[in-house]
Design a protein that fits this description.
about 350 residues; alpha/beta; TIM Barrel; 8-stranded parallel beta sheet; about 10% strand; globular; binds adenine; binds zinc ion
Length: about 350
């Protein structure tokens, strides 16, 4: 592996500008978690639905969470306003526009069809709306975008098989398969057969593991599900053998600091382990998870984390480089993104 370049130090006052200016990939963002309350109200009106809250401000006030489950309950209520292909298209475009302002140049969006088929929509409505937005993203928003379908782990493996079958006619519109929702009590191995099937069908594989759940879930995501990336993975810091494995096999971790803060995985960002992960040589990346719910898009995650942990330009470069290396884009495209990253660090 080529050694990572050493970049010039940048003063703490100029770090927010550098973090904004550097191109980056976002690899852990649930598109339903980008639905801002104002857009929720607009969609409710368009689809002639009533919301449980009187205003967007009241919705935001409800966003106080004790843990992952307390968030998921509200998050699922928010998805009820999505009804048509155009709704999914518009939601994705709103995220792309926001991400473009943060200099995201590539993104791999998580979505789940089970939430929506669970209240009567077809999988095609979801996939076609999101895919059309991804196709328009280069021209409209200056970024490339791909889709990763997450199974909901609180449901059965049989339900995940059904979900996979439903999207088979749409196979070419989806790059990968992931695993999300309530982690505790739903270990990765619950989905061993359906992940084996997805692998056979040629999907790239990822899974949420070690967000709230134990390090053993990260081991089984790697060894049973055979995923290529771990989403969150912060609990790996409790297991030094696992840390060594992640470093040795260069397994990327899509870490989401503001999510960890809001869901009380860490009491404060000053306690967050992302700095220690980088020091250990882990391929960590920074992402926003559900930005409309957790108080910030990707740059807010970068700037708050860098301020809390007093990280500098070298870590910024490493994180952006990791984000492109961890992505599922092809080698030529990856080189093009990294060239643009290098150009920013050459001149900053
Ligand atoms: N779905 C949306 N956000 C999630 C998270 N942080 N963990 C698990 N499932 C999710
Ligand atoms: Zn997530």
């Amino acid at each position: 592996m080529k050694p990572v370049r050493t970049v010039k130090p940048v003063s703490p006052e100029r770090m927010p500008a550098l973090l904004r200016a550097m191109p980056k990939a976002e690899l852990h963002m649930h598109i339903e978690g980008s639905l801002e309350p104002e857009q929720m109200f607009a969609l409710a009106q368009r689809n002639q639905l009533a919301l449980a809250w009187p205003s967007a401000a009241a919705v935001r006030e409800a966003y106080v969470f004790d843990n992952l489950q307390s968030f998921l309950d509200i998050y699922h209520a928010g998805t009820l306003v999505l009804k048509t292909e155009q709704d999914f298209y518009d939601m994705a475009c709103a995220y792309f526009q926001r991400a473009q302002a943060d200099n995201v140049t590539h993104t791999e969006l998580f979505f789940d069809t089970q939430t929506h088929t669970g209240h009567g929509l077809s999988a095609e409505v979801v996939v076609n709306g999101l895919h059309r937005a991804c196709m328009d993203a280069p021209e409209k928003f200056g970024m490339t975008a791909a889709l990763i379908l997450c199974f909901l782990r609180h449901l059965s493996e049989e339900a995940a098989f059904e979900c996979l079958e439903q999207v088979q006619p749409l196979r070419d519109k989806i790059v990968g398969i992931g695993l999300a929702s309530s982690e505790q009590g739903h270990p990765p191995e619950k989905f061993s057969k359906v992940f084996a099937r997805a692998r056979h069908l040629g999907y790239r594989l990822v899974a949420h593991a070690g967000e709230e759940g134990p390090a053993s879930y990260i081991w089984s995501a790697l060894d049973v599900l055979k995923v290529e990336r771990i989403d969150h993975g912060v609990q790996s810091m409790t297991d030094s053998t696992l840390m060594q494995r992640l470093v040795q096999d260069r397994i990327p971790l899509t870490v989401c600091p503001l999510s960890n803060l809001k869901l009380r995985v860490y009491p404060s960002l000053t306690q967050h382990s992302i700095g220690r992960m980088l020091d250990a040589g882990m391929v960590a990346t920074i992402n926003s998870d559900d930005p409309a719910y957790f108080g910030g898009y990707i740059n807010e995650n970068f700037t708050q984390t860098f301020a809390a942990l007093q990280l500098g330009a070298q870590q910024a470069y490493q994180l952006a480089l990791n984000s492109f290396n961890a992505s599922f884009m092809d080698a030529t495209e990856r080189a093009r993104h990294i060239e643009r990253l290098d150009a920013v660090f050459d001149t900053f």
